[in-house]
Batch of 2 targets.
Target 1
Amino acid sequence: MSPAILTLLAFGLSLVGWLVARARARAFRLASPTGRTHSLPGFHAWYVGLWIAVPTLVFVLIWNGVSPVLIRHEVLATPAASSLPAFGFERQSLLSQAHAVATGAARAVFDPAAEAFVIPFRAAIFRYQVIGLVLTIVIAFAGGAHAFLRLRPDFAARTHVERAVMGLLLLASLVAILTTAGIMLSLIFETIRFFRLVSPTDFLLGLHWAPDPMSVGVPDGHQFGAIPLFWGTIYIGAVIAMVVAIPLGLMSAIYLTQYATHQVRSVVKPLLEILAGVPTVVYGYFAALTVAPKIRDFAQAVGINDASTESAMAAGLVMGVMIIPFVSSMADDAIAAVPNDMRNGSLALGATRAETIRRVLIPAALPGIVAGMMLAVSRAIGETMIVVMAAGATANLTVNPFKAMTTVTFQIVAMLTGEGSFDHPATLSAFALGMALFLVTLALNFIALRVVKRYREAYE
Amino acid sequence: MSASVPAQPDAIDSTFGTVSAFPEPVEGPKIAARNVSVYYGEKRAIEDVSIDIPKSYVTAFIGPSGCGKSTFLRSINRMNDTIPGARVEGQILLDGEDIYRSGMDIVELRARVGMVFQKPNPFPKSIYENIAYGPRIHGMTNSRSELDGIVESSLQRAGLWDEVKDRLSDSGTALSGGQQQRLCIARAIAIDPEVILMDEPCSALDPIATARIEELIDELRGRYAIVIVTHSMQQAARVSQRTAFFHLGRIVEYGTTSDIFTNPREERTKDYITGRYG
């Protein structure tokens, strides 16, 4: 029995339990002198249904992990197993070939030596399928019986079902958190592997980045200086992009909240939000094919002769445009949250609209605006496609925005898709870079959320 | 509510005494409204209101919720302009000058006609900066010491100086509700207006803070023309010398406060002040 069939079986049995329990609860209701039971029949039905489905599904999940191990054990216990190589690649290969043939995934074995294991595998698989099926049914009936026997007119099925619903919701909210924790863990392990090969000081303080994925022997720490990448990331994402995005985003938010009529706002705001929905790879084309050559021409026209086609400027400008809706919508929320009384108080003192915005609204909304900017920075430095397509691949440590630069995200892509083997330090460096990026964006988001929270408390 | 409005007979008597001692103003009205109607989109909130508001008295607007008294108040310094779809017909004259004529400078109008709102709305700035805000935007001072002087005198006139003089750099929003409202009054006074409009200035305050504001209004009388919208008839009786009763967007009756409360001409006024509706 495949896990899918066992799962279907669990749901089917659960449905049966659900129907039977509901019928029984209805019978209670008719029989009771008041015509009432503690809980509605639906709650009894769900109580029994859940008691069947949940333990059974948990079992199927566990069985799915355990049974292959048991099958293998059984096969290895057969006399034929003594002919297997003791360990290593060949042993694994023989076993998996035999397994594939036994399950019907492959037509024939490559290695005739594997042939001997096909029959034992088939037998073991069949045996454990039967065991799995029987256990599933037994567990379903045990759960169902346990629940069903507790049904009585005054049984508080409602309370139990509500608690189960709460558990389900809790589980759902934990998924994202656990995923984050999983990402953290996987990054941590690979990062540690990297730092065993390259010292953290070389990585964090080195000024030269040129890992060679094909190098052999002891890695040269001086190839792994990440400062040029950090600089490129900050220069493109936090400097050039923000110089574009913050003024434009803020001004558009001010226009939309303070000046635009209702009609204009209802058109412009969705349009601005569409900008946020454009795939970043499309911005990448635009940056690489349209903006970058123009910027090079401009740079050469003003006398900067070493300007390259791919430049930090091109990537930063386009990234800034991409971030505008983000800044604008955060600033919009922050300004709209300032009480209208505050604005009226200023206007009633004879302040003009512009004075009111500059001296009252912006200062009052500043925490929210700053938080929006931080989130924007954290998005910009994590952005990948635009820099991959327009910023270049050379790790330059320069303030000249017309030069090619490279970023942390670009190098992660480059290192992971390179030709080095997985345990090569160049490949592993991607994880250390990812870790650095993850920590920085996490910190930015954390601070931004704290700021927003404090700010909300001030007005409510 | 009982038929006899006064809750504090002594205060009322003295106020009424003062009123009857006043001669009718010899100068023209400070504010004269002529056939004013205010619309919010299609809806007419104020219908054909004409009223003369004198210079040295406190004038109270009373009436049930939704009667248009706040709307009319807000049309005196054109705060209705900030509401999309609001439209004013008729004339409102400030010292004989139509404030709705084209070319009227709203900034100058609002500098002359200050306003205090229902909910205290200090800016999230220091106490000092709250007061200095108006003088700064109007360029009223040339030096820091001049500005310091305005801040001090405004706070003193608003009766707040002694409470805050040692913490002028604290945030205005950290004050108590009553102090915040006096700060807002001080802020309005700081630009030396001719008229102060107050839109239910005590509705968010406790009785003690309310009493303090009422005292303050009494102290400010004579120096500024004060117009106050209030829900509390006792308050109107205590602080004002003139009262206008609004109902369904019209002025039903306007006269000296003592007449309105002791000897109303209109049946509806009588019903309202005796608490039969509203």
Target 2
Amino acid sequence: MSGLRLESSADIGPVLRLRLAGFVHSLRDSGFKVGLAETRDASRLLCTQVIKRPDSLKAAFRSLFCGRLSDWQRFDEIFDAYWSGKGVKSGVKVSGTSTRKGMKTIREMIDASGRRQDTIVGDVERLPGEEDELSDDTPSGRREGASIAENLGQVDFRNLSDPDALKQAHDLAERLARAMRIRLTRRDRQKRSGKKLDLRRTIRRSIAHGGTPIDLVRKGPREKQLRLVILLDASGSMNNYTGVFTRFVHGLLDSFREAEAFLFHTRLVHVSSALSERDAGRALDRMGLMAQGVGGGTKIGAALADFNRWHAARVVHSRTCILILSDGYDTGAPEALGDEMARLRRRCRRIVWLNPLLGWQGYEPTAGGMAAALPYVDFFAPAHNLASLSALEPYLARL
Amino acid sequence: MTQTKDQIALQLTEAGYIADEGLATALLLTSMLARPLLLEGEAGVGKTEVAKALARLENTDLIRLQCYEGLDRSDAIYEWNYQRQLLAIKAREGSGDSAETVEEAVFSEKYLLERPLLAAIRRDVPPVLLIDEIDRADEEFEAFLLEILSDFQVSIPELGTVQATSIPRVVLTSNGTRELSDALRRRCLYHFVDYPSPDRETRILLARVPGLDAALAVQIADLMGKLRKEDLVKVPGVAETIDWAAALLGLGAKNLKDNRELVFETLSCVLKTREDSARVSREVTDRLLGKVA
């Protein structure tokens, strides 16, 4: 093995050690996952002659301390702020805390905003009449899994006008989607743990060889995994819901190994690649750029036709669940929507239609488009608040 | 032997890999700290090539484990050769050996099938172990991979614990289709492989496409850089650039600007989806070519 081995007994002196500890501390504050082993390796690196120049020190520390792309992108800034701000050589001021003065870490900012949010939840709670209105409509059992802040869970998204409350609803929607994943995969695993060798058939085959099992028979390939294809309505009439649904979809997309997302208003846009961005904010930005024209009218029929024509063959298979998030207000002909729904229904396993209007009191799905689509929908559910989104999980698990 | 990162960068160049800033340092650290290196980046930026070049540089074997969904111990570490075991049992049936003797014989080294992870720790010369696309494997696999990467030993219940005779240089790659565990990330050194700068891509082209004119290589790299900034579904990687350069060379192009038609027709080397082909129309190609020096 080339390169050089390090002596573990090397010492870098108390001053540098404290500085290093301070640096690791500020990395942790910024959400880096840095353990003791990394710190120890870093201090061993500092005493080698290999890394003399500051830029190679930065490169070395970057490799060592970063664990993911988001770390990678922020590292230079934190490194420069810490080491260049004070200078390593002039290490007079040693204490780890003094160096962090003025540099507000991301964790601190999050904590601060978290405190702010606590008070906002209080505000939401006081929104008049919301809870009573909804508790009648929501059957019990539907709320299973909604261990998230209950008060916010029951508020209709359209009534969330406070930007902070809205942001919190967005976060919750995303977390909810991720939580679904954990539970869904656990169920999946238990089902999958079968024997690999099919002993019965192996022995049956061995008869031909005088009882010697030459041909081993294995259990066939697993069932195809459930694939989720999401069609999200982003038209003007859905304005109040698009934001939170997008976050929900972003979370779902991350949770399902096989998931595709499309967004439609007057035309259909494939947005999976934009939403695969891990950072939710950036994903939404990218998606916004891809789907210009959001907020216009809806042509659900035309969008579905587009989907059937260009994408369905590729993304829909027999174990696909199609999830449509739309209010069903269609400016096209209802017959066209019905035809396309029928075509789609033949291809996939289930169609789930989530309609935010269904959560309103007195809503009947009689709008032309919605009525035409309904015969082909397997599961028609409200999606106007977090509780109704979480009610979706048991259904998805059964697929 | 003490190496510096510049030496490693130079050696990598000799091995046919043009390293970007920081990669040489990261490789240096893998041997200094004996930690695995996790490479992330878009498909086609040359993550796998790093391991191959490292093996050439160290003049050692490359053992590759391609991960996929459902990969398990028997495919990754070891498996017993059941067919041979059964035959051996059958053959000994009349010999009157005791059950213990037969069992001992059947669960011996002879009937053990080495899979990449076990093979990697049993070499005399430390090989380069490439664990490709770790994000495709299941989370359980990640967990026992961690165990092997920290202890470098494998326990086989019937045979006992196999200690590593040499510690391999481990390179993991990930495309980010699934989030890896923090434990694995923390264990590894990390390097993000980005699309190369035009300058670096030019050097890659010159190293990889023999007979390519330097001026043409500069133009191709420049155009690729601009193409990647377009809003594409599948952003072309370095492998595509190399293919395209080879295609242009084969078709006798000397200068991109004099061969606009040819450029447009050969773009199929770099644009791999229907949407992308539709997006990069003749006009877009001309516009991009106009900006190329």
